[in-house]
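Consider the tokenized backbone below.
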């Protein structure tokens, strides 16, 4: 991992560590993001009595720890493994996964430009990390059109090549809201009336798709970047279908429930 931070971590911060040494009553680790060493006392490895620390950790293994205390003068950092809950561990692992994904793009770019990865990483990170805590956060903004690498100061050639890769690999996550449109009509021009309604619904957004299911039933799917946007369009579709109703026609939208 190329990502490195200066100074010391904060108390209660969740950090990525690598086990380097195991003693009878303590475990020594490297804080991979800070380039410093820390210690996990046996009492902070796991609740309950521990007979052998090697039942819980091993040299070379990466673990997620919580910072308990810091002595900057002695450069001593006390850590805890047992005080990291599942949610914190999951969040930290996802952060690491995303940052490694960003670094992988830097690696591919370095091969393409035939330059050392450390050199490319420095050129990119020194600009981005002035505004963001991690590269991947910037890349998500670039993918969403909310940031520009060149405007952040990244060298033009690198910015262009990297942006192309980011748009391919950091595609915004989509959410899908679905339902079923049910239409019944005794109108002499019922087919045209149904077609007109479905076309009006489809025109509400490019993210809408409608598929015929049979017997006056149609599958409605809305794919958006987030739920609020999808919900807004779904409500517009419901209003459009309500306009189908009259003395001889009925139209309803049945929301698909999540299991």
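A designed sequence for it:
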């Amino acid at each position: 991992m190329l990502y490195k931070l200066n100074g010391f971590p904060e108390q209660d911060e969740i950090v990525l560590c690598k086990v380097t040494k195991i003693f009878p009553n303590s475990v020594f680790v490297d804080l991979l993001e800070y380039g410093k060493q820390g210690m996990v006392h046996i009492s902070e490895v796991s609740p309950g009595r521990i007979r052998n620390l090697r039942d819980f950790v091993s040299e070379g293994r990466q673990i997620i720890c919580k910072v308990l205390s810091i002595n900057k003068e002695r450069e001593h950092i006390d850590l805890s493994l047992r005080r990291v809950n599942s949610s914190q561990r999951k969040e930290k692992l996802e952060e690491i996964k995303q940052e490694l994904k960003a670094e992988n793009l830097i690696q591919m770019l370095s091969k393409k430009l035939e330059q050392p990865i450390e050199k490319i990483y420095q050129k990119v990170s020194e600009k981005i990390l002035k505004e963001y805590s991690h590269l991947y956060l910037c890349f998500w903004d670039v993918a969403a059109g909310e940031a520009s690498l060149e405007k952040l100061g990244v060298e033009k050639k690198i910015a262009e090549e990297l942006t192309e890769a980011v748009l391919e690999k950091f595609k915004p996550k989509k959410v899908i809201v679905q339902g079923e449109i049910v239409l019944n009509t005794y109108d002499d021009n019922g087919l045209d009336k149904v077609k007109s309604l479905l076309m009006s619904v489809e025109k509400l957004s490019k993210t809408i798709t409608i598929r015929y299911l049979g017997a006056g039933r149609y599958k409605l799917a809305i794919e958006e970047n987030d739920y609020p946007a999808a919900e807004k369009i779904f409500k517009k579709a419901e209003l459009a279908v309500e306009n189908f109703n009259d003395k001889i026609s009925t139209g309803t939208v049945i929301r698909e429930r999540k299991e």
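The domain at 87-169 is CATH 1.10.150.190 (DNA polymerase; domain 1).
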